[in-house]
Every structure is written in structure tokens, then in C-alpha cells.
Amino acid sequence: MDKTASEDNVKYNDPGYGVFKQKFKKITGIDLNSYKDQIHRRTHMLMQRWGLKDKEYEKYFETIEKNDEKLREFLDYLTINVSEFFRNDSQWWRLRDTILPDLIKLRGNKRIKLWSCGCATGEEPYSLAILSIVLGLDLHTPVLAVDIDDGAMAIAKKGQYLKRQLTSVPKDYLARFFTTTDGENYAVTQEVKNRVTFKKMNMIEDRFADAFDLILCRNVVIYFTPETKTHLYKKFSDALAPGGYFLVGSTEQIFEYKSLGLENSGSFLYRKPISAAGRA
Length: 280
Known about the structure:
Layout: H1 3-12, H2 15-28, H3 37-49, H4 57-66, H5 68-79, H6 89-107, E1 114-117, H7 123-134, E2 143-147, H8 150-158, E3 160-162, H9 171-177, E4 178-180, E5 185-188, H10 190-193, E6 196-200, E7 212-217, H11 226-239, E8 240-248, E9 263-264, E10 269-271
Parallel strand pairs: 1-2, 1-7, 2-6, 7-8
Antiparallel strand pairs: 3-5, 4-5, 8-10, 9-10
């Protein structure tokens, strides 16, 4: 073990840091113990950036608790709420051209239940909502978008974005589903907003709904420990309807997918067998 790793372990095991994590969970619902060392390293790096010394955890917590801007900065630094519309666009065109049409054919109707888990500032669920409009999915089955971060969801609900966040949006989609006054700041149309329902959720602790046809959880689970990952993947598998698909991030892979009752359906895509127990 190198010197840096050894020093990190001392910090992470400090009783004061343990108390900090307990208090932090009480005000945010986020259990830092479920995350890998990368998150703990960021926690301490931000502590140093704010001019706090080692072991000044009480002062660190008070800074976060009493200052909403500092809490926002802390959460953003930990979760990296950076995204864009149709991120990794080839995955989205596969959803549009193959996966969603396959689900429509399987269900025999256009009432497809969609879920964006870890929706951050809204680019992913709105992208999914745009595809639901393009494919004529039923308006009465909106995209469920969940996140634990109130600040990120507040931004998402406004539906306002910078031009650089729309670089992967096709020109015809940009003209149809966005409005702009200056060519730099864009807003999603009300038609798109109406297709998304936002809800706060702690996905580690909260109960999932079920019978989803498509679940997107991309670049979220990578921050968790292996034990927490397995726990979440099992919950996602249980939340899928037979024949439903689960799409993860382009840096993620579920090695134990068979034991979770899933099939591999291509790069970063898994499916619950159609022969699974009847749909809820």
C-alpha cells in the first residue's frame, strides 16, 4: 500500500469522519458508507479546498448544514451532475430504432413504462421523453425521473439548458422540442415537460415501483461499493416487467447478470426474459 492510500485509510476511519457521515445522512438521506473510496477522497479534497484542516469535521458539517450554496457545491462535487441530451448518442438511436419499437410490439400497445434513475439535471429523462413523442407513446405513461439531489431536480424542472448541452440533439429535434431567444440558451417545450414526472428517491433505501419496460441508470452505480451495486442491480431486475430492458452506463458492466435473472442484450444492455413470471 502506498503512502497516499495509507493516509486516506486513516482519514476514512477517523471517528470524527464517522460522526460527520451520520449527520450528513440525517440531513440529506445519502449514506456515504455505500460509496467507494473515490467519493471519500472527494469529500476530503473539498474540505481542503474550503480551508478546513484535518479532523475539523464538525466545522465541515456546520458549513454544509447552515449554507445551502455550500451544500449544493458539496453535492455537485460528489456526484458530478454533468450531462447532456442524448449522451452517447448511438445508445439513444438504438433505443429509438430497435428497443422501444420491440417493446411496443411485445406489449401490443403504446403504454410503455419508462424510468430514468439518477436523472440529475434532467437531460436524460427529457431525451427519453422526446423519443416517446417521436414514437407516439401514450401520453398517460410519463417518464419517471428520480434523484436524491433536490438542487439538481430543481434545475431539471426548469428545463433550461446551454447550447453545449445540446450538441448531440438532431437538428429536427432541436427545432421541434426546444425554444431559444439567443441561440445560446435553450428551453425544452411544454410538450416535453408534460412527459416527465420528477420524484425524489434514495435508490439504496427506498422501495422501487415495478413493471417497468425500460430502466435507464447510467453512470450512477459506478460510485458505489460492490456490495451496494449488487443490491441495486437486484432491485432493478425485480422492477422490470418480463421482456423489459435495463440500460447502464458505457463504463459499467453487470458480470452477475444471470444470477440476477437477466439476459445480456448487447453492450451495456440487459433484459428480463419474456418467459419470466407474469407482469404486475
